[in-house]
Design brief:
about 800 residues; mainly alpha; Arc Repressor Mutant, subunit A; 5 domains; two-stranded parallel sheet; about 70% helix; flat; disordered N terminus
Length: about 800
């Protein structure tokens, strides 16, 4: 009875033995393979250090992962670094890589380096490199918002946009993200398909609520039994699809771990189902946040805007406007632009004939477009349509505001010298009523038009009128803006008045002054105080400017704050640092949409730095590429171009170029009232070209200012040094010496190192030529200058000083 059983049992045992033997052989072979690979790599690392990169470990099979773990356990001390990369969104707790990572973490030599998403700036650079063209900053922000800076996602979205023909210009209306590319959708869909149908259903509704969603809102929209809802959320959390949101107020809140998970689920919903869910979510949010609706205006606006019912659209407009105002209040300019554009779209559906309300939204949008670095859109889209709407409504006040918006945007763009700007300002000038705050602002805009065509006296009259009107009306905006314009004026006949005004406003409280006017005043007044010999006062204003920039993130404030560091470097003779800041500044200017404005602020200073370093060819190329063809900036550019040609020894060409600007009316019909920062470089040009007639005329215009330093953005120079050089040219060494000594005191007071060295050199030259009894003093001046020039790498000036030393030795 037992015999057959015994036979069967024996047979089964034999089969198991064979299987066990085969399994043991396979394990042995596998172990030997792992050992062989390990030994090979160890021996190879003895010859030279090795770096092995394993990409896309989320797609690796079990054998590869076992090899990786074996290597980690058995290669301690080897000169080998293994770097593995994987997408964490592909790896949940059931993924084979998850177990391998747990094993690897036990080793002392294991290090996990999470790679976070790129910043907006890095996305912007990536876009520019991939497209080969400068990418709009607003597009970079939108793509960063959608992809959270994941490089793969950024690349896929850019490829999709290019294929769809949407690779240029700005990002649509900014209200919605671009559709998810097919390749990226496959990656995300694979993760979602691992979840149960019920969990996908719950997440789809959550996706309509938003990237972040509260449990109580979800329960109102999707009335599932608590057990089912909890189970679905638990599964989504276990697969890292969502995470619990901490600090989100009362109640339980969750968040999609990546925005694209939410977008994928959202786009899979049938359109009518989406609309119905948005309506339900909007009402649920109103119920949950009934006491704090203004804080959640952005969410409410987004959901009500998806409805087709008139009452809901009216609410969408109300909440969009409220959200825009809140965004403006906390300097979230990009968010304000999105909400205002959404308001305009809703209004178009709700009441396309409401001209006044649309005009107001356009005016607000124009202000915010300037704040996000899109002044051209502000002028040519928002202001242009706003003027048309205001005109259609017969509303003069709003029409005037549209003209002012365009004028400010063009100034910000650096296009205040053209016919387009003049046309807007003249239109505003015709509409502005006397004794109004608007009149003061328009006068200031008109002063810019007059200034650019050389009608300086008329321009200053407008500025003075605006200042006086602003004082009478108590208008802070116009008062600070006009004071900033006055400080550009420099000194001269009205010097005491200008200095008193700037000093008064600089010392007071600046609370309530809008950032765009305040940062302008702080910069111009700071430069003026510095030039007048008050470095402490200037430093106080510059510190405040940095605080304004940090707090508001307003583009012009950020740019001017960067100029402060460059100015410090220039005054200290740290030329290379200043040039590096210049490169950053010009790159940011493209980002902020105002390269012309940036050149007018940084270009002349960069040119002077290059000349000081002996890079005249480079300086001339930069000037030739950027110099405006007409207006005041053309005069500045021409003077710098002449100095470059002079440094290159091309004097005949320099005289031909300088002819128009050295003409008595070269600065325009009211040249006698030109500001110091324009006249000083022309006097410098006259000395370089030995033009005595121009030197006499320009010296008379600058007389009495020898103790001042003119600082125009990054371009700074001592007036007294040029007056001294002109006096020496005209054969009056006593006057020249007096000017040099006054200039030296002024520059030492503000620690203007390069100018101090240049004044010592020119004093030495003056003493050697006209005061032979003071040879010792001349040598001391020369020795001081030579040491300074060497340290600052001012090669042309160093060579000039050394030539005098050689003559003295001979």
């Amino acid at each position: 009875m037992c015999w057959p059983v015994s036979l069967r049992s024996s047979s089964k045992t034999s089969a198991q033995a064979r299987e066990d033997s085969a399994r043991a052989d396979a394990e042995e072979q596998r172990w030997r393979l792992l050992q062989a690979v390990t030994g090979f790599l160890r021996n190879a690392s003895l010859v030279q250090p090795l770096l092995i990169i394993l990409e896309d470990l989320h797609d690796a099979d079990r054998g590869t992962l076992d090899l990786l773990v074996h290597l980690a356990r058995n290669l301690q001390g080897a000169r080998l670094l293994v770097v593995g990369t994987y997408r964490d969104v592909e790896v949940d707790r059931s993924h084979p890589l998850s177990g391998a990572l747990a094993e690897l973490r036990r080793g002392a030599s294991f290090l996990r380096v999470p790679l976070r998403g790129l910043t907006v700036d890095e996305v912007h650079r990536m876009m520019t490199l991939l497209r080969g063209l400068e990418a709009p900053w607003s597009r970079a922000e939108a793509i960063h918002r959608q992809t959270e800076g994941n490089p793969l996602f950024v690349q896929e979205v850019l490829r999709y946009l290019a294929e769809e023909g949407r690779d240029g210009g700005r990002t649509g209306d900014g209200s919605a993200d671009a559709a998810i590319p097919e390749g990226l959708r496959d990656v995300l869909g694979k993760r979602l398909s691992r979840l149960s149908d019920k969990t996908n259903q719950v997440l789809a509704v959550a996706a309509v609520i938003g990237r972040e969603f509260r449990l109580d809102v979800l329960q109102r929209v999707l009335p599932l039994p608590e057990e089912e809802l909890t189970s679905a959320l638990k599964e989504a959390s276990a697969t890292a699809m969502i995470e619990t949101r901490a600090g989100a107020g009362p109640g339980v809140a969750f968040r999609f771990t990546h925005a694209l998970f939410r977008q994928t689920l959202y786009e899979e919903l049938f359109s009518l189902r989406r609309i119905r869910l948005h309506q339900q979510v909007a009402r649920a949010l109103e119920a949950v946040y009934e006491r704090r609706l203004d804080e959640h205006a952005a969410e409410l606006a987004e959901h009500f805007a998806q409805s087709t019912e008139h009452e809901d659209m009216d609410k969408a407009l109300h909440y969009s406007e409220l959200a825009a105002r809140r965004a403006m209040g906390v300097y979230a300019y990009g968010e304000a632009v999105r909400h205002l554009e959404q308001s305009l779209r809703v209004l178009e559906v709700l009441d396309s004939d409401d001209q006044v309300r649309r005009c107001d939204l356009l005016l607000a949008l124009g202000d915010m477009l300037q704040a996000v670095g899109e002044p051209l859109r502000a002028a040519r889209e928002a202001a242009t349509e706003a003027l048309a709407r205001a005109t259609a409504a017969g509303d003069e006040a709003r029409a005037l505001r549209a003209c002012q918006l365009a004028a400010r945007a063009l100034i910000r763009l650096g296009e205040s010298g053209g016919a387009e700007f003049q046309g807007w300002v003249e239109e505003a000038d015709r509409r502005a009523e006397p004794e109004t705050a608007v009149r003061a602002q328009v006068d200031l805009d008109m002063s810019t038009v007059l200034f650019d065509v050389g009608r300086f006296r008329s321009a200053w009259e407008r500025v003075s009128a605006a200042q006086e009107l602003a004082r009478r009306l108590g208008d802070l905006e116009a008062r600070y803006r006009s004071a900033a314009r006055q400080s550009e004026r420099g000194s001269g006949p009205h010097g005491p008045e200008v200095r008193a005004l700037v000093t008064e406003l600089a010392a007071g409280s600046h609370e309530g002054v809008p950032p765009r006017f305040l940062n302008f005043f702080l910069w111009e007044a700071g430069c003026s105080l510095l030039g007048w010999g008050d470095p402490q006062g200037a430093g106080r204003l510059f510190r405040e400017l940095r605080e304004v920039a940090t707090k508001t993130r307003y583009p012009s404030a950020l740019q001017r704050a960067d100029l402060i560091g460059a100015l410090d470097d220039s005054l200290a003779g740290r030329w290379e640092d200043a040039l590096a800041r210049g490169d950053t500044f010009m790159a940011q200017a493209k980002e902020f949409g105002n390269p012309s404005w940036a050149w007018s602020n940084f270009g002349p200073g960069i040119t002077r730095i290059r000349l000081s370093l002996g890079r005249a060819d480079e300086a001339l190329a930069g000037i030739n590429a950027a110099i405006p063809r007409e207006g005041v900036q053309a005069v500045v550019g021409t003077a710098l171009r002449v100095l470059c040609l002079g440094a290159l020894g091309r004097l005949d060409e320099a005289r031909t170029v300088a002819g128009p600007v050295l003409d008595p009316e070269g600065l325009g019909p009211e040249a006698d009232h030109a500001p110091t920062y324009l006249v000083a470089p022309l006097l410098e040009v006259a000395v370089v070209l030995q033009d005595r007639e121009a030197a006499v005329r320009l010296s008379a215009q600058l007389s009495g200012l020898s103790d001042q330093v003119t600082i125009r953005a990054l371009s700074a120079t001592a007036v007294g040094r040029h007056l001294g050089a002109a006096a020496a040219l005209l054969g009056d060494p006593e006057v020249a010496r007096r000017y040099y000594e006054q200039a030296l005191k002024a520059c030492e007071k503000i620690h203007f190192r390069p100018e101090v060295a240049l004044i010592h050199l020119q004093l030495a030259e003056l003493l050697l030529e006209h005061y032979p009894d003071e040879r010792k003093a001349a040598i001391e001046h020369l020795d001081f200058a030579i040491t300074e020039f060497r340290e600052m790498k001012m090669q042309p000036s160093l060579e000039r000083a050394l030539r005098h030393k050689d003559v003295l030795k001979a």
